[in-house]
Every structure is written in structure tokens, then in C-alpha cells.
Amino acid sequence: MSGRLTSHRSRLDLRPARLRAAALGTALATVLVPALSACGGDPASATGSATLKWASSYFPTHWDPVVGGSGAQFRELALVYASLTRTDENGKAVPDLAKSWEYNAKGDQITFHLHPDLKFSDGEPVNAAAVKAAIERAQQQKNSALFGDLKSISSVDANGLDAVIHLTQVDYQIPQLLGERVLQIASPKAAASPDTLDQAPVGAGPFIVTQLVPGTKAVLRKNPDYWDAKNIHIDNVELTSAPDALTVVSGLQTGVYNFADIAPSQAEAARKAGLDVFVQPGFNASNISLNINKAPFNNDKVVDAVRYAIDRQEFVDKLTFGYGSVTNQPFPKGYVAYDPQSANDYAYDPAKSKQLLAEAGYKPGDIKLNLVIPAEDPQAEIVQAQLAKVGITADIKIDKNWATPFFAKDLTFSLYGTTGRDSAAQTLTAHFGPNGPLNLSSPYEPAGFEEAIAKVRQTPLDSSDYATVLQAATRVGLQSKALIFTYSSPNLIAKSKSISALPKNPAHIDWTGVTISGSN
């Protein structure tokens, strides 16, 4: 599940940009991967034609999509890899490698029909056997970040260009699920050596890697064999790990870059510098994570006391610079899965928080907690100050290896955030399901959640009842005592005016139709 500690941190690399850049500088001194012979091309060619120069805060830690595809870096990996489906501006699944698909009458089998005559950049054919291999590898590879997303798939039959996916349950979410985030498809020949693929990616996406400096820079050229190559107007891409946030805007001004993801704090400076600031809609939501299997959160009144102690508006005011909004859900307002009926649950009420703590038998100062995070984060300081107002002491502890105890459910109190899933059901399951990676209180789940999410999966996406059924599942999930959502913020991108407008596909960066003017 994709997530981050702030709106600009992938869960696969949660260090602040300045620390990450320093670490990568050390790596650069000793590691250099030459041009990938399988891809060919001249890295120097990226200086001509229409060149995208992208400074990324999410430069891939892993180029194997099975390992890295679920984090926020899926956008960068999508330069190289295509998927069965992709997402349009309405958030709906549309064709990518698959030109069409249909379910059987029962809804427990779906067949994807692939475009003919496609191939990976190593010359291997894009066919149903490649889809089958990708799914099975994502389910079985030991370091896969995707296996939990594929629980609905029992097996795959490969019939030429038809991939027949047999499901463990009726699940109409599959076209939404098997897009860029969860099933970016690599060449089976290249994927036979996952370690090699991790540093020498081979896909069937719009671009081909020609040079890769791990953790620092990738040079790519347009893939002439991409199924929609006629609508890709960018010839070359220079993808660079973003430097310190304070220098990104100046790099854009001087032409070192022409495209960069930025923090809300940089948006005004980017506008004043004459850059376009693109507000990309998304599914981002930050939260406070509690482990109800550990004291003091095994007391429901303490959990509710913390809920009422949180002033969401303060997060928005101090962290989003006018771009964010409060949310008590894993979705932003206006999204189909957002439940209006739950909008005012556990509104800020410090007096009620203090009362609940007293009823639970705690005096001010009795509760002392470690708030464990991987790096400095202003969210933690806000939480610390708000809890102090109701008599709870939270000591901020930084653990660079935070991910290990978090995903092992060993922490008591932490922060997290998500960039969501194109399948809303998968987002809900990741947060509230008994095995959800973002459920710090596993195997706990709120009563009725399993039945509610099953009903979502059983409801076709084009059904008139879909929104009602989905919002009902959100409502049940929000009864969870393990998560307190705080705020949502869109993705912000600063770009040169030479780059045309991007499609507003939620959470995705789609290069279809995008042009760069003034190129040689």
C-alpha cells in the first residue's frame, strides 16, 4: 500500500530529501550503471529534441515493479512499465496493454484481451503468458510489495492474447486494481532474474531506460513500440533524484529541470518564479496510527480521548499552505468513497477528551507515550502539542528503521499516510482489514467490515448502488479504533511553461498528448 509520512514521502524511502540526497551522493561515488545494452540508445541524445527533465522526490529505490510498484514511486516506474489498465480523469479504468475485458456472468472470472503485436523493450512478446507470469511473481516473490493486493486472484490461464483471471470471490474491482499501482508488467525473460531487473528495468511502457545511476539519475528515450506511441510527444527523459527542497525552484528557473514535484511550502515561490503549478487531484490522507493491542490503547475511552484531542484544522493551516483540507477518512472530500454521514464524527473537543481520560482513571500526566517516526516531521510536533493540552505526554522518537516495527505491528503509536489505491475497496482493506498493512492493530478489524467490503466487491462499478454501498463500507471501517485521520493534500507539481497541460488523472502522471515546446 502506497503511503507516506507527509504528502511528499514514499513509504519505500521516508528520509527527508536533504538526507536522501547526501546518502545518494555517497553512492554516486562508487556505483555507476552503464547504458543498458538491451535498450540501446545514446544517453547524450537526451540533450536534444523534446526532453523532460524531471526532479523527483520519489526517485525509485527499486526498479522491479513487484518490489517498488506500490509506493508513490509508481509514477516514475510508469515511464518504463505499462499495465493492463490505467486511470482516466474520472478515476475509471481504461485500456492500456489490455484493449478490453469482460466478466463472466457470476463475476468470479475476468478475461483481459491484449493489444496484438506488442513487445517488451528486450523484444519479448507482450501476451497473456507475460500477464500470468507477472501476477504469479507478484504473489510469490519473497520481497513482493503487492501480494496482499492480489488475494482475490486464485489462478490465471494464458490463451494467446487472452488472460483469463480466476477469482477467489466475486470481485468487480479488478480492472481498477490491476493498473499502474499494482500490476506494472515486466518482461518475463528479464524478470527471471529479479535482482538484475531491479537495476536494469525492461517493460513495455512509453519509455526505455538507456542509462541508470542507482538512486540518483535515469536517462530514458521514447519507446517506438509502445502501443500508444503516436500520442507520446516526448523524445527523452532525464529523471533525477530531487535535491534539497529549497533548491528545486531555482533549478526549475535556470532550466536544470523543467518538471518537479514540490511541497506546498514551495508553491508560492514557484508561481512567483513564473512557473506553472499543477494541482494534481489524488487520494492522499494522513493519519495517526494506534495499536489497540497495547496499553493504553486497549482502553476504548483512551482511544476516544485521543480522537477528540485532535484539531485537524491545525494540520491544514500549518502544513498545506491553502492546498489541503481536513478529513477524518482515508479519502478526500468529493471522492466517491468519502462518506458524508461520517464527516463530523469525533470533532475536536478537548473538554470531552479530558473527561474520557478521567473516566478511564487517568490524571493529567499519567499517560506517557513514544510517538515513533522515521524522520523529523512537523505532523509529530502538532500531535505532541495537541495531546499535551489534554494531559497526555508524547515523546517523539526517530527510528530510521521504523518500517520494520511498523509493518510488524510492534509499535504502539505512530504516524502514517497513504496515496491510496485506484480501487477504493483495496484502500479500505489496507487500512481496516485484519491483515491490512496500514492497520497497526492487526488482526483487529471493526465489526461488520468483512461483510461490508465483500458487498463492495460484489457490486459492479457501473451499478447505481455502487456509491451507496461503497460509502457504507467506509462508514463501517471508520469505526476502527486503530486510525485517526487528520488531513488530505493534493499532489503539487511545478513545471516550465514550455510543457503543456497534463491530464488530471487522479494520483497519476499521464504523458499522453503532453508536448514540450521550444525543443530542437
TrEMBL record:
Keyword entries, A-Z? Signal, Transport
SUPFAM superfamilies cross-referenced by the UniProt entry: Periplasmic binding protein-like II
Q: Which InterPro entries does the record cross-reference, listed alphabetically?
A: SBP_5 (IPR039424), SBP_5_dom (IPR000914)
Q: Per its UniProt record, what Gene3D superfamilies does this chain match?
A: Dipeptide-binding Protein, Domain 1 (3.90.76.10), Dipeptide-binding Protein, Domain 3 (3.10.105.10), Periplasmic binding protein-like II (3.40.190.10)
A Pfam match is SBP_bac_5
One GO BP annotation is:
peptide transport
Any GO MF annotation of the entry: peptide transmembrane transporter activity
Q: Where is the Solute-binding protein family domain?
A: 93-430
Query: PANTHER family, alphabetically?
Result: OLIGOPEPTIDE-BINDING PROTEIN APPA (PTHR30290:SF9), PERIPLASMIC BINDING COMPONENT OF ABC TRANSPORTER (PTHR30290)
Q: Which family does it belong to?
A: Belongs to the bacterial solute-binding protein 5 family.
Name listed for the protein in its UniProt record: Peptide ABC transporter permease
Q: Origin organism of this chain?
A: Peterkaempfera bronchialis
